[in-house]
Amino acid sequence: MYGVIFDFLRDYVIERHGGEETWKAMLKANGYGYKIFFPVTEYRDEELVALARTAAEALHTPLSAVLEDFGAYVGNKLMTFYHMYTKDEQWKTFDVIENAGGCIHNAIHKHNSMRKPPKISAHRETDDLLVLRYQSHRKMCDVVKGVIRGLGERYGESFHIEETCCMHDGAGECIINVYRIH
Question: Could you name the CATH architecture of 72-181?
Fold first, then answer.
């Protein structure tokens, strides 16, 4: 996983969960005296999960809830960080999701053939229902659901999110229905 995600996690912890001292405590709890994550350097996925697990324990909150909240925080940040890969300023949440697995991931990862981004595909069943399919060895579907919420916040949209199939339950992929609320 690229270091930019760890930077987002640091910002999330500092802004929403106690500041710089909390971040330092999380690093220490995971065996780091001091650690800088460089945005385009790759780090083991387990490092992010371990840090998130430490946060969940400290907050007395299920890991899935922490990951989803982190995803909501990240949704807006991803669009700011990767703004050059969105093709149309008129895009809204469904447009971004529909293009995430194709043109956006392809552009981000074109210079690194070793990257293994998640497989994401999405199609609109109706104007107000998008069906997203997610598959990754990371099994970060909770983060994906949060990113959808975060994108909705960015674009002033509300959604009901329903995961009908999940890799954590043994499925080969997660299927997430995203219903736009008017």
Answer: Alpha-Beta Complex (3.90)
